[in-house]
Amino acid sequence: MLTDTRNSFRRIGDDDWMVQFTEEEKELLISLLVSTNFAKELVANEINDMEMGEKKLESSTYKKLIQIYDKVI
Amino acid sequence: MLTDTRNSFRRIGDDDWMVQFTEEEKELLISLLVSTNFAKELVANEINDMEMGEKKLESSTYKKLIQIYDKVI
């Protein structure tokens, strides 16, 4: 069941293509994330990577991650 | 770093409380999902659970999951 997904990508950097989701698809992904408890693991890993220096610690993103984490624990 | 998260929940069912994220937080979660490749696993698991009968197969949700899966593989 392969649909033509070429138009669902948006160029964000030289070689970076960001998938374009519809609002409904985003809502579904978010509710899946929360209902399966994946959100906590996903966000905790990212915070940890930033704190360990494995990922660039960009303060506004870091703050948002902490806010999300506080909501899902 | 605990903030007051009580107002970030929305009642959606008798005992179901859905976390309320801001638009920025949603965008961050979605970009994390895609960049860490978690999206594929998350969606594949859900599709599988529906096909195996472990979760109720609701056709419009199932179709959306397939669309998302086609975008992230």
Automatic annotation (TrEMBL), chains A, B:
It holds the Pfam family AbbA_antirepres. Gene3D superfamilies: 1.10.287.3030. This is Uncharacterized protein. It comes from Sutcliffiella tianshenii.
